[in-house]
Fold this sequence. Notes:
Layout (H helix, E strand, L loop, with lengths): L1 E2 L2 E3 L4 E4 L21 H5 L5 E10 L4 E10 L2 E10 L3 E6 L9 E7 L9 E5 L2 E6 L2 E5 L3
Antiparallel strand pairs: 1-2, 2-3, 3-11, 4-5, 4-8, 5-6, 6-11, 7-10, 8-9, 9-10
Amino acid sequence: MERGNLLYDSTLCIVHKATETLDLYSNEESKTAMITNVFELLDIRTGNIALNDVRVEKWGSVVVVDAVYRYPPEEKAFTLRFTGVRSIQWITVKLNSDADTAQVLTHDIGEGNYQRTARFATVLAEVVISYGEVAVEKDW
């Protein structure tokens, strides 16, 4: 099933086709906007995001970001899977941390098809990803 630039499949995986726009308004209006953050992508209220893990797979062509969304009392885990990755930049902010999660200070999903990089700035590190597509995996 397709809605704007989001594709849904039976495993509750959302693929963000970031090169297109999502109609955030009624069909009668022509206003459109790019999805630039996780809250819009997941269609949830603005809240807190923490990263639990960032994994590089398939020799760097896939980057998997495990995260948790918190808006008390809600706490929902989700995964962002970036595919067709051309480059990854990692900037360490805090060395020698034993923290299990990293609070996200700011983020931008970017634009797929290598148009604009995704960025996650956390209290521990900043990750910048140039990618083809991003998919959201969640079970809620």
